[in-house]
Amino acid sequence: MADTMTAQETQATGQYSDPNVTPPLGQAIPLGFQHVLAMFASNVTPSIIVAGAAGLAFGGAEQVYLIQMAMLFAGIATLFQTVGIGPIGARLPIMQGTSFAFVGVLAGVAATQGLSVALTACIIGGVIHFALGSVIGKLRWLFPPLVTGLVILAIGLYLIPVAIKYAAGGAAQFQMEAESFGSLKHWTVALTVVIVALVLKFFTKGTLSSAAILVGMIAGYIVAYLSGMVNFGAVAKASWVTGITPLPYGFEFSLGAVIAVTLVSIVSAIETVGDASATAKAGAGRDATDEEIQGATYADGLGTAIAGVFGGLPNTSFSQNVGIVGMTGVMSRHVVTIGGVILILCGLMPKVGAVIASMPLPVLGGGVIVMFGMVASAGLNMLSEIPMNRRNMVIIAVSLAVGLGLNLVPTAVQYLPGVVKTLMTSAVAPTALCAIVLNLVLPQED
């Protein structure tokens, strides 16, 4: 502990420990690009999954558009955080990106009710998320590590089967290469991604280590290309620059979808509070101020609401980028602003989105095996902070059993009204509700 505190104190006195100080451009631009590399794969993956759940053609124009919006509004939301507008934004080096926390809920809604309902829920959920900024400090007691860790663990466990399906060559909604599902060709590509990512993560340092998953997916992409699995037809047809379309799928309200997205938004807001606090501690050796935490939550909500209007999914602060701040000791918010601008430029270029959309499913599968596993591991890490007494073990057992069980067997609640059924089979929402209620009503043990 003494060594850690000494490092933080030393870092806090460094020339770049002030968020308002900018390193020379020769250093700031590579650092900004490193922030993009660290989050790029995680940022676009949720859009690919939700697009697939909605039945959009894999590699088609609609999927390309959703990928573009993921990049564009991650960049815009990042500027909300780093540059700020009035009380909006922490004005800290916080990188925003599309949140995995919403994938389970939105994939279910998109598959059963369509993208119009899912994106409408994102818009309304974003507005509610924004409003949480004024009361976020008062709600934190509802989400101790026991509850938040359970929710994050449930998200990871829910998504892992999706990763395996992709790695094996597809999923039911894509209806592609069904005859070769699980073939050695597919698993060779997926395992290339996993092996390269692990080697780079643990046996290299700096940018290669930070961008291990992205580089692993590039390696898998090359293997897939050499195997004849890549089709660049959509890339050739895609334009270099395009505009954006408001409400591309219309506006369709569903109470169940809004409630489910709102519940996840609350958890996302709590995660952002943690990231803002961790950023301030890692980069400047201090605690985040109330204004920074409030501003970070406002930026989260505003970014989510505006993204939903144009076809983007909810965004949140990215924890991996907090690690970069700690690793480099560069607290400058303007470095992350450069990263946000890079994402905006990528989002306005359909060619970039088409290249990503041409990525075969096993490549994506190899990447998300690692990413989804890390989501589950992050939940376990949070749960490791709590005492494993009988009370807490019962809360964990019941919450996961109900949340994941109903998701695996949705017909168990087939006679419930549509709104309630959507909530009960979303995995995340029932896990969160059970954990919150049980944590409130069960007596504490000595």
UniProtKB/TrEMBL annotation:
**Keyword Disulfide bond appears in the UniProt entry:** no
- Compartments it resides in: Cell membrane
Keywords assigned: Cell membrane, Membrane, Transmembrane, Transmembrane helix, Transport
Top-level taxonomic group? Bacteria
Sequence segments annotated as region (Disordered): 1-21
Chief site of localization: membrane
Q: Where are the transmembrane segments?
A: 36-58, 65-88, 100-130, 142-164, 184-204, 211-233, 253-273, 335-357, 363-383, 395-416, 422-442
Q: Does the keyword Zinc apply?
A: no
Recorded hits in InterPro entries, A to Z, give:
NCS2 (IPR006043), UacT-like (IPR017588), Xan_ur_permease (IPR006042)
Task: Classify the protein's membrane topology as the record does.
Answer: Multi-pass membrane protein
The protein's matches in PROSITE patterns, at most eight in alphabetical order, are given as: XANTH_URACIL_PERMASE (PS01116)
Which residues fall in a compositionally biased region of kind Polar residues? 1-20
Which family is this sequence assigned to?
Belongs to the nucleobase:cation symporter-2 (NCS2) (TC 2.A.40) family.
Write the protein's name: Nucleobase:cation symporter-2, NCS2 family
Per the UniProt entry, what species is this protein from, by scientific name? Answer: Shimia sagamensis
